[in-house]
Amino acid sequence: MKKVTLHNGLAMPMLGLGVWKMEHEEAVQSVKTAVQLGYRAIDTAAIYKNEAGVGQGIKECGIPREELFITTKVWNDDLGYEETLAAFEESLKKLQLDYLDLYLIHWPVAGKYKDAWRALEKLYKEKRVRAIGVCNFHQHHLENVMADAEIMPMINQIECHPLLSQHELREYCASHNIQVEAWSPLGQGTLLEHPVLEEIAETHNKSVAQVILRWDIQNNIITIPKSIKAHRIQENGEIFDFELSANEMARINALNKNERVGSNPEKYDV
Ligand SMILES: NC(=O)c1ccc[n+]([C@@H]2O[C@H](COP(=O)([O-])OP(=O)(O)OC[C@H]3O[C@@H](n4cnc5c(N)ncnc54)[C@H](OP(=O)(O)O)[C@@H]3O)[C@@H](O)[C@H]2O)c1
User: Fold this and answer.
1) How remote is the CA of residue 15 from the centroid of ligand 1, in Å?
2) Residue 102 CB: number of other CB atoms within 10 A?
3) How high is the pLDDT of residue 268?
4) Of residues 48, 103, 113, 124, which has the active-site annotation?
5) Residue in 128, 123, 102, 108 with CA at minimum distance from that of residue 224
6) Residues with C-beta less than 6 Å from any ligand 1 atom
7) Ligand 1 centre and the CA of 22: distance in Å?
8) How many CB atoms lie within 10 A of CB 115?
9) Residue-level pLDDT at 239
10) Choosing a second label site near 74 at 20 to 30 A (CA), which of 96, 123, 158, 165?
């Protein structure tokens, strides 16, 4: 599994399993399947209401906990210093873990995320979590949080795929040593019949999903596709045995339309 080193020296897998919309049992089974197929990272969130399922999957997967990289996120209702500390304990309990690898602020709710960041800094300093970061932060949110931060965010997890390539935000993050991670990398499944991607996929005898995920890796973007189907979890993992050419990367980069499948952080209605 290819890894990237975060600015605090922690190595994080470039590919993980997303588990949004999975029911309890789906989460248990998908986590076990993914780990058996070589995945080492899982991305959940308090709001997904499947942390207990993820925790059970981790317990039953047969791989030592230290070899796994587990991410969860604090939900909007729990943003605040004390609230976030309490939410962290609740998530750990559900996951049956005694530390997290990565804890993220889920959305930049105005007026709330800076207090939550102080809580994440405390958890990090106390070694309850090995890395801390944010999701859905635009440049101005990052500037705002970093203005008073003691510890800079290690990750910004954002919607990113060929129709929303986030070029400027990725450049900004790179210049501040913030690693970008893509959510909805497959556009929630809507990108899989794109003719340009289909043509490139055919050249490599790969699927469109594999081409998109490979595009992430070659752009140094961590990617976390979700699937509950074993054959797709396997397919999404088989992206380290081929390479897109510079011309193919440019063709995919040119597909950007700034088109979202999820909420715009600026307009997010909490
Ligand atoms: N931080 C945030 O605000 C945020 C927001 C959204 C998502 N996320 C994270 O990002 C993860 C991924 O995003 P996502 O779940 O929204 O969407 P996604 O990974 O882009 O797409 C998932 C959809 O594509 C299908 N799929 C997966 N692999 C496929 C393949 N190889 N061929 C055909 N179809 C395939 C899945 O169906 P099946 O399951 O039926 O295979 C599912 O319907 C989430 O699970 C979550 O962990 C974070």
Assistant:
1) 13
2) 24
3) 64
4) 48
5) 102
6) 18-20, 43, 106, 135-136, 157, 183-189, 192, 207, 209, 224-229, 232, 235-236, 262
7) 10
8) 14
9) 98
10) 165
Our CA angle for 133, 99, 29, nearest 5°, is 90
Nearest to 237 by CA among 15, 62, 27: 15
CA angle 55, 59, 64 (to 5 degrees): 115
pLDDT profile of the chain (270 residues), mean per 10: 96 98 98 98 98 98 97 98 98 98 97 97 98 98 98 98 98 98 97 98 98 98 98 98 98 98 80
Task: Report which of 67, 33, 60, 44 is spatially closest to residue 229, judged by C-alpha positions.
Answer: 33
Q: Which atom of ligand 1 is nearest to the CA of 73?
A: 1
Position 267 scores a pLDDT of 79
Q: How far is the CA of 225 from the centre of ligand 1 (A)?
A: 5
Q: Determine the pLDDT at residue 269.
A: 53
Cα–Cα distance, 77 to 92 (Å, whole number):
17
User: Is 172 an annotated catalytic residue?
Assistant: no
